[in-house]
Amino acid sequence: MLSLLKNKAFNIFNTGHVLSKNLFTSPTSLDKGVPVSSDPSFDGTSANYLEDMYNSWLKDPKSVHTSWDAYFRHSSSGRGYMQPPNFSPENTLSYLKSVQNNPVSSSQVNERLQNVPEQSIVQDIVNNYQMRGHLLARTNPLDTMFDITDKTTTLTDQLGKVPSEIVRNQKIDESMLTSSFSLPSSTKIGEGSLPLKEIIKRLELTYCRHIGLEYMHILDEEQCAWIREKFETPGASELKKSEKRLMLNRLAKAVMFEGFLQKKWASEKRFGLEGCEVLIPCLKHIIDEASRKDAEMAVIGMAHRGRLNVIANVCNTPYHLLFGQFHALQAEDEGAGDVKYHLGRYNKRVLPVTKKDFTTVLIANASHLEMVNPVCAGRVKAEQFFRNDSEGNKILPIIIHGDASICGEGVVYETINLANLKNFHNGGTIHVIVNNQVGFTTDPIYSRSSFYCTDVGKIINAPIFHVNADDPESALYVAKVATEFRFTFHKDVIIDLVGYRRNGHNEADEPMVTQPLMYKLIKTIPNILEKYSKVAVQTGVVTQEEINKFKEETDKLLEEEFVIGGKLTTMRFADWIDSPWSGFFKKADDTKIPSTGVGMDVLDHIAKKFSEPPGPDFELHKALLRVMQMRQEMVNNHTADWAIGEALAIGSLLKDGIHVRLSGEDVERGTFSHRHHVMHHQSKANTRYTYFQDLFPGQAPYIVTNSPISEYGVLGFEHGYSMARPDCLVIWEAQFGDFANNGQALFDCMIASGQTKWMRQCGLVCLFPHGLEGQGPEHSSGRMERFLQLSSDDQDYLPPNCDEFYDLNQLRDINWIIANCTTPASLFHILRRQVKLPFRKPLLIFTPKSLLRLPEARSKFEEMSEGTEFQRLIPETGPAAENPSVVKKLVFCSGKVYYEFVKVLKEKNLENKVAVARIEQICPFPFDLVEKEVQKYSNAQMAWGQEEHKNSGAWTYVQPRFETALKGERDVTYIGRPPSASTASGNKIQYQQQYKNLMADLVANLE
């Protein structure tokens, strides 16, 4: 209870929530979630005692104990944080009441607490160091450092006086420095009493040397106390000799590796780690600590700075494989590859320190520095799910940032915001910043508004440890504590390694052009191995002979590996796969597409469960009762609308043992109120029912979860989730297809090109609500043309039509699949086909809005039963198909415009004159089926019809492919809206006129 009251007081007086009613009257603890009334020391009538006492003090300062009088005066002055007095009966509300009823004489008060003012000053000093000591810490190696062999020198020693920046709120009398004061409970620097001079010295040794601690923003007092224990306790940060020796070994490998690359490839781009090589021993120590806590895997996401060193010395990659990347080698396998500092790596080995199996994964990343963040988070979440690691103890995420990018790229915030959300939380990420103090050529003053680059971490109350990267012992201790914190509290933690960049942005860049003074100083600084080797010898950690021997052995190894690498003539992209799927490709039958139809009994069972309310005691909203009734009517007729078709696909896959995860903004209900996979009890708080959790005995788990309003971050998370295993269906739905624009970089750099660059297959499904419904430019188009333009098929190549594996080969060769389905049966089959294929490709489905409830856009269960399959092209089945020789126009289209075309043709009695064929799978293009349909209507004009503008939609993709399919024998004309810079008109009159013109073009030259 004491921590609750301290937390409340801290928030009331120091975080802007002054006298907030919510803090005074909240029924639960801020840090424990324990009801106030459950504390046996309170009778239930004193929950508002702080407010009562404060109000009483406002009326008469003498009505409260002198300690509270001093506290309220200090807090009201706005001079910063002061620790509240002890919450004991004699000086809180019970004492207040006794004072009001039986006033105590001033002599009695002074007798009880004689040194209150001076003691309050001491408390204030302690709090100031804890809150602001990091501002004076010598964390920048380009500024004056403390001698790391001398662990006793403080800032006061250097300045000759107590730093005014810390204690400026207090005037310290010289006599106080030698006076002893009781140590408050809020500090761990000692017990009992100490002279003020010694108190300040111990606080400075903790907060003002080479580690800057930011943690007082954390609301949980238990976490704050834990951090104080780790850093304030005298001698706590001292490393063992064995730890120092191991750290020196790892540091030497990191430094010598960078030096070797510089010697052999001086002008080659490699984005070296020089100036922050301590990253390598820190990462390895984090992994060792995680392994000691029985973790099995670390998943690392990072940009290119220092990536080669991480690949070599953290992922334990043979040096010659990496050296081979500097040569022009012929690839043994398919793909285009990527530059060496973007590559990923997967390594499983026994760790020398713990003797335990451990897997290290480095996720491949593109040049968008922080793009990998959500991918890493999602990959970890999936690995934890498949290992039943609900606490996050087995799989550890580590994300390595740059100082300019962590505060500059919005995806960082989007990812960090996921940290504590249900269905996204992965047990806490260790963030490590390689802080060069410059971004490419930009100084911090021009690259961020925040004081620190790490301030984004405060949104989730993450502790932030700034540390001087040229003090390896301090850096290693910070890494150790950060790992312990993560596994203790399962929260994110941030390590800010403040170093520098010895060379320019890349090795061919000249940094003196833009940072002349900084680089003049950097040139004078010896590398960290030289500096720390002297320290290690001086302090007896190693001998100079041992250092010399190690350097000789490492040099010899690097040279030998260099020779081996120089003899390589070929390379395998497969050596750099970051997510191998063991056994998947061996057991998969790549000669056919497995059947996607399902038995009628299974379909009936799923549909019945999906159309029933949760139970008689579950109070549903009246509107949902009508939805259930309509579903039951359709199910009784063996008919599926879009929501039921989707449900049948998900339910049947769960029965097959396929884990399904669906996320996105408001997906539980569905943006268009059609899905309703989660029901909410109308009179009981936090009472929900999720469909498909209990369909079949032994079924796979189903996760459906709303996400934050984030496209880039959540899309990346789900992409990462899909990488872990091939035997799951991961679906991300954009609220509107247009919103996927905010994730376009991910589509470009990872989803569309991941297999080509990194041999990394991905089965992610993306749903884009799409269609011009008169809702304006941003709620109309999913920008189909952008995704089609990224497709890798050749518009001039006509696949041979004699191959019985035609469809399968097309899917195998394409980089992703793009569909615009018109029926629930199409959706059902293409979702099931996605996990039945013997390989994995991303699947992009442009889903409807108006078709969700259109009676014509329904499918019979028979269209999804055994023996049925996905139709890439649905041919004309109406009157025109009965007499094709008299058909004047054959129109190909996709999506909802099909139903609009059919409606107009029926109204104008032209159904026998115009045939309309639906292309359900646009990419890869169904050349064979198009050719077959064209031959059927030999006398018809050929046209492509779409609702989108001419420069949007599928027209620019399908036009050259129609020409290839028709071999130049027939022309294909365009039916659709004219070109436009906007995806759709927001003016109703203009929209309606465009629609009329579209339909007029459909029937032109026919009547």
TrEMBL record:
GO molecular function: metal ion binding; oxoglutarate dehydrogenase (succinyl-transferring) activity
Keyword set, alphabetical order: Glycolysis, Magnesium, Metal-binding, Mitochondrion, Oxidoreductase, Thiamine pyrophosphate, Transit peptide
Places the protein is found: Mitochondrion
GO cellular component, one term: mitochondrion
Chain coiled-coil ranges: none
Keyword Transit peptide: yes
EC number, UniProt record: 1.2.4.2
Database matches in NCBIfam families: 2oxo_dh_E1, PRK09404.1, PRK12270.1
Protein family per UniProt: Belongs to the alpha-ketoglutarate dehydrogenase family.
Protein name as annotated: 2-oxoglutarate dehydrogenase, mitochondrial
Native source organism of the sequence: Hypothenemus hampei (Coffee berry borer)
